[in-house]
Amino acid sequence: MASTADFKNGLVIEYNNDLYTITQFQHVKPGKGPAFVRTKLKNIKTGRVIDNTFTSGTKVNVARVERRPYQYLYKDDMGYYFMHLETFDQIHVEEILIDNYQFLVEGMGVEVVVHADTENILSVDLPQFVAMEVIYSEPGLRGDTATNTLKQAKVENGEIIMVPLFVNTGDKIKIDIRDRSYAERIKS
Question: pTM above the 0.85 mark?
Answer without folding.
Answer: no
